[in-house]
Amino acid sequence: MDDRETISYLGPAGTFTEAALKLAPQAVGKTWKPVLNVLEALQDVQAGTSCAAMIAIENSVEGGVTASQDALATMPGLRIVGEYIVPIRFSLAAAAGTALDAVRTVAAHPVAYGQCRLWLNRMLPGHVHVPAASNVASVDLVLANEGAQRLADAAITTPFITDHRDVAILASDIQDNGNARTRFALVTMGTELPERTGRDKTSLIVELPEERPGGLLSLLEQIAARGINLSMIASRPIPQQPGRYRFVLDLDGHLHDARVRDALLGIRRLSPAVTFLGSYPRAVASTVPVPSAYSDENYQAAAQWLQGLER
Length: 311
Hints:
311 residues; 3 domains; elongated; 15 strands; Alpha-Beta Plaits; 5-stranded mixed beta sheet; D-Maltodextrin-Binding Protein, domain 2; 26% helix; 9 helices; 29% strand; alpha/beta
């Protein structure tokens, strides 16, 4: 297996992460390597045994994928080069011949389980949740040791599971939110930025230098003062410093946009602990327009005016 032609992802085949890989032009012609979890996928990239990893970043129902956010915050050198959105639909699968009213235990990835609670409580009251590592691993728990020793009666899984496992679908579209989707990121160790597209996103992780009233406001002012839309902010605890938090930020714009460069300089002056995760094309273009005062042309005109004052 050529490390330069290998991309790691949460496997096995048939997961939503694999569906995200199918959307990535960079994955065409590469070998797709299934791994057990996000950390293993990113460790492959750091070690050079894979050229990239596809990881889940955020779910529209459950929020940020904390394992991914924490790994990106603590594993140096990683860069996001693209994001991809996959609509989320879930099915309940079981071994052939299983009736829905016979299901007592349901295997599911915790995120998938959280997105199907209403349906489960309505259709399978009193069921027991069996945690699984992925939406395909849940089915493997059903198929393992069939009979009296079966680990689970049914599994929450992807609609395309029958392409990969010999199971029957007991129910389709069991998710509670029909608009659910998951955002995935393609991560590499490269330092070359994707070209500006005009519909870009810049991701950062920032730790405030000290706890003080208005500390977070000072950070956000660096962004708002440059006319930049903050499309996502999440806080994650810093394990080594109980009671302290780091902030995961997504900004509209590219590092090569003057307003974004200026904001990053301001953020870096405010905090010495800034992790730049990359500037890359958004999966969906922002609906928030950039105020004309913050265009590259106006930044250039202002710089020329300032230089003229020194003559």
